[in-house]
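User: Please fill in residues for this 617-position structure.
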């Protein structure tokens, strides 16, 4: 196979000029072990080793775009750039052109392919620079950092490599480019292909040229095959494929964990202080991811996550289930400020760890049971759920029932207050309801009756205490006594998706319409509109708008749902990706990136709204 990385009409990106750049116009490459972000100048500005939550050796994104903490391939007198993914892959192609007509292409990827019967996905970044026209010259700046930006690691060089003494994981850059030009950052004429292989401190078996060429061909073949097996909708195929590939890149194959985003501390809004580390596995977020991948027919990531989740359930014993765990399943995620980094656009602090691990978020029991429920109903899986697994899940169900009317931090992880959140109660109901369905599936009628009874108790509590008759909708909090809460919560748009309310139930449509009226800002929805620990929310949470689109489709407002979905797709950056938040007034993306929640929204809405294949032509 020949690695054809050409841009065709379908893959070509718009020309990138300074006036068109946005702050999160970043391409994502990776291999389900590491991930890297590449900006519109073909600079690697974020990459952690040896895994997603490791030390960011390239960290300029979180350091006010500093000169260090980056891996640049800059064209001398560069005038314009074009960038696009190679169709249906996680391989990025950048074309850099200078004012004199010279041009190079830069191919970036992290190797991933089958080797000796196993998936080969090393801690490796490959960059291939090829001349296209004229006499282009490049400057390579290889400036890694260590200890979360605090230090410049010691570097030593041999004949064809640079050794980087990153504490805990030494790296080696092997190249066929002249090392003197890299070390001194001197211009280099590109009259033949140059290859840069950054990986573990080991000698390559072949030359950089042959290694890069072979890895590129194998990696492209892997992605072509993976995409070919997806069950995609007829409409919006490119959007769904790009979202699916990126979700795959956010899964950690070694354990099955799924991270919420590749980055830490990209603020939810300018100078808001809402800077959090998302490089961990939230059980809630991961449930939505595997649900989306399952709809696409991608079972491998789902099976690995189920093993990860089943391990957490077994290890938890009688202890509460945490909302978030490390990639290995570790429970301690202490939060610290990294003083060596100035922050995204200088907006610190930069944090590592996340104190949400210590919170009580009762919806997590529903998220865990909904996630593992796939094991009982999906006959494609190698290891189906059994009675022993059901018994483990019932321990979670017992806690869900006990806690359904108790205060917690809620889905939005409030740090300064606790309430009985309706969404948490709703997910506790879902936990009991799905345990009843699993028991019925296993022909255990007494257990099914038991869990149906518990689900009915929680249903009655939600209907009695979370319905605000004056507003005519379900509200965010469940009050036992006194006046009903009038706070709205966009997560209640999922009451239909979770099957708590039937699509024809007038309470569902009423709740959707009231939430739309109160939480909508322009084309987007806020999570809530009340002050929290950091003041009033300033940006819209993108997944809430996707939930709104799903709810509109469910209650029969399909045309409106399609129009809103198209507007959401127009918010993606030039690489087809989304972060967590958006400024409703400017359309500027904010928050950690790429956000799995938002990418799930693309997939689920497209599959819900697309015309059927058998009706398409």
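Assistant: Residues filled in for all 617 positions:
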């Amino acid at each position: 196979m020949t690695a054809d990385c050409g841009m065709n009409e379908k893959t070509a990106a718009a020309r990138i000029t300074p006036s068109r750049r946005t702050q999160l116009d970043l391409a994502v490459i990776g291999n389900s072990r590491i991930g890297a972000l590449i900006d519109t100048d073909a600079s690697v500005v974020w990459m952690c080793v040896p895994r997603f939550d490791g030390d960011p050796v390239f960290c300029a994104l979180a350091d006010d775009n500093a000169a260090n903490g980056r891996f640049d391939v800059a064209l001398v007198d560069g005038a314009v750039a074009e960038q696009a993914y190679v169709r249906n892959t996680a391989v990025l192609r950048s074309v850099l052109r200078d004012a004199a007509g010279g041009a190079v292409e830069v191919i970036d990827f992290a190797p991933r392919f089958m080797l000796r019967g196993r998936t080969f996905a090393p801690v490796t970044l490959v960059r291939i620079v090829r001349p296209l026209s004229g006499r282009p010259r490049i400057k390579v700046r290889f400036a890694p950092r260590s200890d979360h930006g605090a230090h410049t690691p010691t570097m030593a060089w041999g004949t064809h490599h640079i050794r980087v003494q990153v504490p805990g994981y030494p790296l080696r850059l092997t190249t066929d480019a002249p090392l003197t030009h890299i070390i001194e950052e001197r211009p280099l004429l590109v009259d033949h292909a140059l290859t840069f292989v950054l990986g573990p401190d080991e000698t390559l078996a072949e030359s950089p040229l042959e290694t890069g060429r072979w890895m590129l061909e194998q990696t492209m073949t892997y992605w072509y095959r993976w995409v070919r097996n997806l069950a995609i909708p007829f409409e919006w195929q490119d959007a769904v494929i790009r979202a699916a590939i990126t979700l795959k890149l956010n899964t950690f194959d070694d354990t099955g964990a799924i991270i919420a985003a590749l980055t830490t501390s990209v603020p939810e809004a300018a100078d808001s202080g809402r800077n959090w580390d998302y490089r961990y596995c939230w059980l809630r977020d991961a449930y939505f991811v595997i649900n989306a991948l399952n709809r696409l027919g991608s079972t491998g990531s789902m099976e690995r996550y189920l093993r990860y989740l089943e391990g957490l359930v077994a290890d938890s014993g009688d202890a509460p289930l945490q909302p978030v765990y490390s990639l290995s399943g570790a429970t301690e995620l202490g939060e610290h400020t990294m003083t060596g980094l100035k922050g995204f656009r200088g907006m610190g602090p930069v944090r590592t760890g996340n104190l949400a691990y210590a919170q009580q978020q009762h919806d997590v029991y529903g998220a865990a049971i909904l996630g593992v429920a796939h094991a009982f109903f999906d006959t494609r899986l190698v290891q189906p759920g059994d009675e022993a697994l059901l018994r483990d899940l019932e321990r979670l169900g017992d806690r869900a029932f006990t806690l359904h009317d108790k205060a917690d931090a809620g889905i939005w992880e409030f740090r300064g207050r606790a309430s009985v959140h309706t969404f948490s109660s709703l997910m506790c109901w879902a936990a009991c309801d799905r345990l009843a369905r699993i028991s019925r599936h296993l022909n255990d009628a007494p257990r099914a009756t038991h869990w149906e009874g518990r689900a009915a108790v929680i249903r009655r509590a939600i209907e009695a205490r979370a319905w605000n008759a004056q507003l005519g909708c379900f509200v965010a909090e469940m009050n036992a006594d006194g006046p009903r809460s009038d706070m709205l919560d966009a997560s209640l748009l999922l009451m239909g998706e979770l099957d708590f309310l039937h699509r024809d139930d007038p309470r569902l449509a009423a709740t959707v319409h009231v939430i739309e009226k109160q939480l909508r800002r322009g084309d987007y929805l806020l999570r809530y509109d009340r002050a929290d620990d950091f003041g009033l929310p300033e940006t819209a949470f993108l997944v809430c708008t996707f939930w709104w689109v799903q709810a509109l489709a469910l209650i029969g407002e399909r045309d409106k749902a399609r129009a809103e979905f198209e507007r959401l797709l127009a918010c993606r950056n030039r690489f087809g990706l989304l972060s967590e938040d958006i400024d409703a007034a400017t359309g500027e993306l904010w928050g950690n990136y790429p956000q799995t929640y938002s990418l799930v929204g693309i997939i689920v809405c497209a599959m819900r709204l697309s015309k059927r294949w058998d009706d398409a032509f």
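For context: DSSP finds 15 helices and 29 strands in the chain.
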